[in-house]
Sequence to fold (369 residues):
Amino acid sequence: MDVLDILEIESEVSLPKRYSELSVQEMEARVREIKEKFGDRLFIPGHHYQKDEVIQFSDARGDSLQLAQICAKLPEAEFIVFCGVHFMAETADMLTGPNQKVILPDMRAGCSMADMADINQTEKGWEKMQEIWGDTILPLTYVNSTAAIKGFVGKNGGACVTSGNVKNMLKWAFTQKERILFLPDQHLGRNTAYDLGIPLEQMAVYAPLTQTFEYEGEWEDVKVILWKGHCSVHEKFNVQHIENLRKTLPDMNIIVHPECTYDVVQASDYNGSTNFIIKTIEAAPAGSKWAIGTEMNLVNRIADEHPDKEIVSLNPFMCPCLTMNRIDLPHLLWSLEKLEEGEVVNQITVSEEITKYAVLSLERMLERS
Ligand code: 13P
Ligand code: SF4
Fold:
C-alpha cells in the first residue's frame, strides 16, 4: 500500500457521506456564505489547473510562480485554503507567517512528479555526483518538489525555479557553479538548458531507482545533470500528435508547456510556462487556431474564455491532472465547514528544520523573479 492509498482511506473516513447528497447549488451557496462570514481572515489561492467548480471561489488564480509570489506577500489571512497540490500548499506554509494556517482540502492531491525525487535518493545521488565532479555542482529544483528537496537545495547554495523563471534561474546558476543538478523534471531541465545553448551531449541523466547515470561521453564535459523525473500529464503529448495536426490542419499554432518532452517542444511553434500560454492566446488575433499541450482543465477554460478563437488540446484524448482534480467542491466545502465549526482539517505544516533551508531556496528564486 503506498502513501496515496493510506491518505485515500483517511480522507474517505474524513469526508462525511452527506457531501455526496448535497446539490451543487447547495454546496456553492454554503461556500459563498462561509467566505463572506470569514472575510479577510480566509484566503483561497487557486492554480490554473484546478477544476472550474473550485477555481470560481479562488481569491487569486495563478501559475506556480504567481501563487508563490502572492503567498510571500499575503496580508493577515488567518486561513489559507489552497486549491492546488501538496507541494504548493507546503510552499505557501513556508512563505506565510507562523499564525497563518494552510489547508489542503484533500490530502490525496499530490503530484506524481514531486514524488519522483525523495530526499534519501537525492542525498545518495548527490554523494555519487560529488565523487565524480567534486564541488562544482549547484542544485536547482523545480518548485514541483517536496519541501525536503527544497531544503536540500537551499542548504547546498541552490534555488527553486518555476516554468515562469527557469531560464533566468539557470543563467544565474551558471554564474555560481560550473555544473547544475536539475530536479526533478528532466524535460524542463533539458528544454531550458538546450534553449540556453547547451548541447544535449553535455547533459547526463541520473536515474535514482538504479542509482546510475545515462550518459556516454566524458564526465568532464557534463554541464547539466538531469534527474530522471517527469510529469505524467505533459508526457501524454507526443510528436505523432503534432505531425497529425500539421497534415490535417496546417494553419494551427502549436503551443506547449516545457514539461513536455524535448521532441515535442522542438516540433511545436511555441513553448512556455502556464502564464506564457495564457498570455499568448489572449494576445492572439480573433480567428486564430491553437492546439495546446498542457493540462486539460486549463485548456478547456482557455477555450471557453476565447470563443472567437479555435482552441483544441494537442492530444484529442487528453484528460485533466488527476491529483489536481482531487480538490473538488465537496472537499472545499467540507474544509470550510470544519473551519466554521472551529476545527482545522488537513493542515499542511513543514517542520522548522526543513523550512529554515527550503525558504532560502525559495527566496533566492523570488529575489530573481
Ligand atoms: P506552472 O504553474 O509553473 O506552469 O507548472 C505547471 C504544473 O505542472 C503545476 O503542477
Ligand atoms: Fe504534478 Fe504534472 Fe499534475 Fe503538475 S500537472 S501537479 S507536475 S502531475
About this structure: The chain has three domains: 3-110+323-350, 114-230, 234-313. The first helix runs from residue 3 to 14. The domain at 3-110+323-350 is CATH 3.40.50.10800 (Rossmann fold). The chain has a mean pLDDT of 95.
